[in-house]
Write a structure and sequence with these properties.
The chain has about 270 residues and is α/β, with parallel strands linked by helices. It has helices at about 20-25, 50-65, 75-90, 100-110, 120-125, 125-135, 150-155, 160-175, 195-200, 210-225, 245-255; strands at about 5-10, 35, 70-75, 95, 115, 140-145, 180-185, 205, 235-240, 260-265, 270-274. It is about 45% helix and about 20% strand. Strands 4-3-1-2-9-10-11 form a 7-stranded mixed sheet, sandwiched between helices. A 4-stranded parallel sheet has the order 6-5-7-8, with helices on both faces. The longest helix is centred in the N-terminal third of the chain and has 17 residues, at about 50-65. About 45% of the residues are buried. The chain binds D-glutamic acid. D-glutamic acid (DGL) binds near residues 16, 44, 45, 150 and 187.
């Protein structure tokens, strides 16, 4: 595909970052958007941080080659593993990343107990330790890695019994310990908010950081004077290192805007267009 100079590049291990993409689309409808799903390697969560860092570097390089002016690391795991490294490696590129929204959770909780759902790699990273240390003094922070949940969402099984069972296993013990706030520390999880609500009830807070991340994208674009001036919107471009037809099918299940889906292939650590 020809380059798309001046697009915002967004990536994730799979379909999770689409929860960020849809907010960016809503807040910045005139920006050109490219989305990269590394479905050849999903899930990232159980992988060593160094491996996720290497994937993130090559995906960033690929998005820059396609013309990206800003890169959104729409994945908590990749942000934990690589955001700091990417900023050093590509010093002229503006990046926006994710960090678990422990700060607003700690500010808003009344019970003083909050639950964070994220991947093992996110919990291991220095970024998570630092947000808990800085913002959650005096608050009890419970954690769960929800094994298997990313896979269920990748398959579009948003309401399946197995998906519910994974969430119940994570959330019931947290509810018993008094959580009133749930932090979605993985970009896949906003797609199962309806199920989470059924389990935690309507009064608990469920924090999806995507709107705040999209606002940050807008601020960064304005700060570097890189806002797209054209008022005509262009279709979103999708790339996947998995199967394009399956990705396209899941786009519909997730209620996402459609656009051309291109397959890419990993070859000896590099990404090639097919
Ligand atoms: N969506 C991702 C995150 O925010 C990654 C999930 C995974 O691949 O394990 O952490």
């Amino acid at each position: 595909m020809e380059r798309q100079d001046g697009a915002i590049g967004i990536f994730d291990s799979g379909v999770g970052g689409l929860s960020v993409l849809r907010e960016v689309r809503a807040q910045l409808p005139n920006e050109a958007l490219m989305y990269f799903a590394d479905q050849a390697h999903v899930p990232y969560g159980p992988r060593p941080l160094e491996e996720v860092r290497a994937f993130s570097e090559e995906i960033t390089r690929f998005l820059l080659e396609q013309g990206a002016k800003l890169v959104v690391v729409a994945c908590n795991t990749a942000s934990a593993a690589a955001l700091h490294y990417l900023r050093g490696k590509f010093p002229h590129v503006p990046f926006v990343g994710m960090e678990p929204a422990v700060k607003p959770a700690a500010e808003q909780t009344k019970s003083g107990v909050v639950g964070v759902l994220a991947t093992p790699a996110t919990f291991q990273g220095a970024l998570y330790a630092s947000v808990v240390e800085r913002f959650a003094q005096g608050v009890t922070v419970l954690q769960d890695t929800c094994p298997g949940l990313v896979g269920q969402i990748e398959r579009g099984a948003l309401e399946a019994a197995e998906t519910r069972a994974i969430l119940e296993k994570a959330l019931y013990p947290m509810l018993e310990r008094g959580i009133d706030t749930v932090v979605l520390g993985c970009t896949h999880y906003p797609f199962v908010i309806p199920l989470i609500r059924q389990i935690v009830g309507e009064t608990a807070r469920v924090i999806d950081p995507a709107p705040a991340v999209a606002r940050q994208v807008k601020r960064v674009l304005e700060a570097v004077e890189a806002t797209r001036l054209s008022s005509e919107s262009v279709p979103i471009r999708y790339y996947t290192s998995g199967a394009p037809a399956s990705f396209d099918a899941v786009l519909s299940v997730l209620g996402m805007e459609r656009g051309p889906v291109r397959g890419v292939r990993w070859q000896a650590g590099y990404i090639q267009e097919i």
